[in-house]
Design goal:
By secondary structure, the chain is an alpha+beta fold. It folds into 2 domains: 189 residues, no CATH class; 183 residues, no CATH class. It is built from 14 helices and 10 strands. It is elongated. The two termini are 33 Å apart. GO terms for molecular function: transmembrane transporter activity. Keywords: Cell membrane, Membrane, Transmembrane, Transmembrane helix. Pfam families: FtsX, MacB_PCD.
């Protein structure tokens, strides 16, 4: 109980010193405030951007593989000349894979034609992406509908002139009215709308269906060359949920090598892309941003720490005679030590909390002013408070220790 009482008295002494020197207190904690603000603001921004990008990546599916000519990446030392002469995935590859893969829930062949104009009577929407796919597209991708349905098996096989619209396309053509059964015009051909995708909102990786139009692949054969590289042909394979992605990938790689008759020891002439590749690249990129935040904020905190240490030495000098009186009345060394340690920690904590308050204010401005939801999570708050406490302990220890070692007689004389 005596220890707790002494700690309480130390805290009161520290609080009194801070209150009596308000201007000095505010100037001292500015460095800590700026440092904590910089670090936590960068981390909150990185976490927000990381979550947004990860949401886009998750739409691809954690158990999905994409057979393509080019591997995902393109950063750093990217040997593009190695992939230039690779063949594009073909319908023959797709048909062969359908009969060979046992670990796949669905396999689809997809192509995309961008910047198309979609018309309905006097209305039109520009910049739409026209996607064409085989029937299993609804298995390899997660599709949500706000009205209508997916293609029937007969519509996909026969290449019926039907289409599913993204929410933005439907809204641009029909306003608030239903799109079901209405005929639109795409590349000079009429198609009947059988469904509308649920609105997904803006997507940082362009994975949203809002500005897409989906048609059966067999119908698209009459519009353009579906195996041309300009339309980015892709074979998408979604593995069974209870089978590891590595097993699905191994089976798919073996099947593709067999279909392309690649001899043992010869490098693949195709790429198997997966979401973990994007996630790994994002981790590397955001790790560098975090390091930059630590460096920038760290310098500010370092300056703030020196400032607080300097102020604490001044405070010890000003109260030397008071320290002498306290020690002559029986105050222990640890009481004097704790008194100044609490003062240093309180300074840093106030600076840290002010920095967190500024970050929170910034998140509100960005969220409500620009419509971008920024999250200040508990982990970043705890980290900001922890950094403040650590800096306070480090900055205040030596001034506090020197105060606790003062000779009471010499201190009173001063």
């Amino acid at each position: 109980m005596i220890i707790f009482r002494l700690i309480g008295e130390s805290f009161r002494f520290a609080a009194d010193a801070l209150i009596q020197n308000k201007l000095r207190t505010m100037l001292s904690l500015l460095g800590i405030t700026i440092g904590i603000f910089t670090i936590i603001a960068v981390f909150s921004g990185v976490d927000t951007l990381r979550n947004k990008l990860q949401e886009s990546v998750d739409k691809l599916g954690s158990n999905t593989l994409f057979v393509q000519k080019w591997p995902w990446g393109g950063f750093g030392d990217y040997p593009w000349w190695k992939y230039m002469n690779r063949p594009e995935p073909t319908l023959r590859d797709y048909q062969a894979l359908k009969g060979r893969l046992e670990h796949a829930d669905g396999i689809s062949y997809e192509v995309s034609s961008r910047n198309r104009v979609i018309k309905y009577r006097s209305s039109s929407v520009e910049g739409a992406t026209l996607n064409a796919a085989t029937h299993d597209y609804h298995i390899t991708w997660t599709l949500d509908f706000q009205e209508g349905r997916y293609f029937t098996d007969n519509e996909s096989r026969s290449g019926s002139p039907v289409a599913i619209l993204g929410a933005e396309i439907a809204n641009g053509l029909f306003g608030g009215s239903s799109a079901m059964g209405k005929q639109i015009k795409v590349m000079g051909r009429r198609l009947t709308v059988v469904g509308v995708f649920k609105k997904e909102g803006e997507d940082m990786l362009g994975m949203s269906q809002d500005n897409n139009v989906l048609i059966p692949l067999n119908f698209a054969k009459g519009l353009f060359d579906i195996q041309n590289s300009n339309y980015d042909p892709t074979i998408t394979v979604r593995g069974k949920s209870y089978i590891a992605l590595e097993e699905v990938e191994s089976e798919l790689q073996g099947a593709m090598r067999s279909i392309h008759r690649i001899r043992p020891g010869v490098e693949d002439d195709f790429s198997l892309n997966k979401t973990t590749m994007i996630s790994n690249q994002l981790d590397i990129m955001f790790k560098m941003v975090r390091i930059a935040g630590w460096v920038i904020g760290g310098f500010s905190i370092l300056v703030g720490g020196f400032g607080i240490a300097n102020i604490m030495f001044v405070s010890v000098k000003e109260r030397t005679n008071i320290i002498g009186i306290q020690k002559s009345l029986g105050a222990k060394n640890y009481f004097i030590l704790l008194q100044f340690m609490f003062e240093a920690v309180a300074l840093c904590l106030m600076g840290g909390l002010l920095g967190l308050l500024l970050v929170y204010s910034l998140t509100l401005v960005v969220t409500y002013g620009f419509g971008i939801k920024v999250v200040l999570d508990s982990a970043n708050i705890i980290m900001g408070i922890s950094i403040s406490v650590v800096i306070g302990v480090i900055s205040g220890f030596w001034p506090a220790y020197s105060a606790s070692r003062l000779d009471p007689v010499e201190a009173i004389r001063s």
